[in-house]
Amino acid sequence: MVQMIAVRVTTARKLMHENPEGRSNRQERGPHRSQEQVRILKEVETLKVVLMSVGKPGQASAAAMQCLAEFGIYHDLQTTPQEAHHVTLCPQWKIVLNALIESRRNELQCKAIKQDRWNNREADRQAEKVFLEWFC
Prior knowledge:
The chain is mostly helical.
């Protein structure tokens, strides 16, 4: 029992953010990324961690439960923790995780395309404004 608790505490510490207050938004977002894109990137990384921990005792259950709770799957299924744990042991769990990762990546790509288009239109507007000011 004590060993199980120690394993869970160790796993929880691995999953915790190193700086609880977080970093400043400018450092975290990086250039040309919206808050929405940062959120999606974090979700993808969380899903990757869960996918990598599948099949590892202790780590897998903590990461999977975090994933189930964070993405609302746990609430949507309306299951007990034991039933949710059994869901994560199914062979289809990896398929679900891969599908979620692919979906989030597609969403991120769509947002990046929209952002590029908006930036191009804004650059065109600025160029047109300069051109009109220069010749008129």
